[in-house]
Design goal:
378 residues; alpha/beta; TIM Barrel; nine-stranded parallel beta sheet; 15 helices; binds zinc ion
Length: 378
């Protein structure tokens, strides 16, 4: 049911297609995050118009509210939220491990209290898989242990061992033939641990491989180094997913290191805050400099917001607290990243990715940025 076809390679980058029960995912791809069965401020038809062919759902949030049973009764997450293309669900691991004060971790699983009502829960690899099978996503993720950076070598080692044991349990529990299961490589910034974790995941065998535990406070160079270490380890015939990365320059650098899939809350969350990607770096539309700027957010962008509205108008909407400000800015940021991965894909297929990368990065860094991105803040 799942098939990954590698169509072209260029300068370390790959163009492929991942066939799922809800359509073909053309890679490289950016996946908008729909935490609570909704991509904030966007309707499914708008996402489709922007060109999204896969979005994320969040197991932790949907397990707590409305509950996987209700989503299953509705006919699964696709029907429940009115989205007919592919969905990837995360395992809930990242959220549970973010609740530092609220959890107790054992080899069995993680005890935590709900951020919604304080109720006690125990998430295990088996429960995470059961919930994801009820949600009925096209791609499920293994429940893994994420460590914060900087991490001690021993703490990271123990998280790697637990992640591998849990990956085995997820593989054994998983039963839906119409759902792919991806393993997640951990290992913080320790090359040996990263390589070993990837190799042992490949021995278990998954339909795709994710790189977790990055974009959580390390430098961009440290992230790229880890991708360089993992690139020769990961099977060419499977999709590779870098979790939680959504800055345009990080995406292009990761694509050039063989990564196929990305997700991040950055474009949606930043959009609501007025921080917008442009081909010449990011801008904060609330700045006074844009008060009389009647040009579009990005003259090179063909999204609905850029075709119809000016920076001055969108700045005004933000200042006035209009909901339309969040909608237009989210629309633009998602369009920007989805279009960026589409252009990268076309350049890989044409054999011109090296030039594309050089041109994009030089333009992106031209004006600096209004806001400095802090990894891990996403
Ligand atoms: Zn735009």
């Amino acid at each position: 049911m799942f098939e990954f076809n590698l169509l072209a390679e260029c300068g370390g980058a790959r163009a492929g297609e991942f066939v799922t029960p809800h359509g073909v995912i053309e890679t490289p791809v950016f996946m908008p995050v729909g935490t609570q069965a909704a991509v904030k401020a966007m309707s499914p038809d708008e996402l489709a118009e922007i060109g999204a062919h896969v979005i994320l759902g969040n197991t932790y949030h949907l397990y707590l509210r409305p509950g996987a049973g209700i989503v299953a009764e509705a006919g699964g997450l696709h029907k429940f939220m009115g989205w007919s293309k592919a969905i990837l669900t995360d395992s809930g691991g990242f959220q549970v491990f973010s609740l530092a004060a609220l959890r107790k971790v054992t080899d069995d699983g993680v005890e935590f209290r709900s951020h919604v009502d304080g109720s006690a829960h125990f998430m295990t690899p088996e429960l995470s898989i059961d919930v994801q099978e009820k949600l009925g996503s096209d791609i499920a993720m293994c429940f893994d242990e994420c460590v914060k950076l900087p991490a001690e070598e021993a703490a990271s080692r123990s998280a790697v061992e637990r992640t591998l044991k849990w990956a085995q349990r997820c593989r054994e529990r998983h039963s839906r033939a119409d759902q792919a299961l991806f393993g997640i490589a951990q290992g913080a910034l320790f090359d040996g641990q990263r390589v070993e974790c990837a190799r042992r995941l490949i021995e278990i065998g998954f339909e795709g491989y994710a790189i977790g535990g990055l974009s959580v406070g390390e430098s961009a160079d440290e992230m790229y180094h880890t991708l360089d270490i993992l690139e020769p380890e990961l099977p060419k015939g499977s999709p590779r997913y870098l979790m939680g990365v959504g800055m345009p320059d990080n995406i292009i650098e990761a694509v050039s290191r063989g990564v196929d899939m990305f997700d991040c809350v950055l474009p949606t969350r930043n959009g609501r805050n007025g921080t917008l990607f442009t081909s010449e770096g990011s801008v904060n539309i609330k700045n006074a400099a844009y008060e009389r700027d009647f040009s579009p957010i990005d003259a090179a962008c063909e999204c609905y917001a850029c075709r119809n509205f000016s920076r001055a108008y969108i700045r005004h909407l933000h200042k006035a607290g209009e909901i339309l400000a969040s909608r237009l800015c989210t629309w633009h940021n998602l369009h920007f990243l989805i279009n960026l991965t589409k252009r990268a894909r076309a350049a890989i297929i044409d054999g011109t990715f090296r030039d594309f990368r050089a041109r994009f990065l030089s333009s992106w860094h031209r004006n600096g940025a209004d806001d400095v991105y802090i990894p891990g803040d996403a």
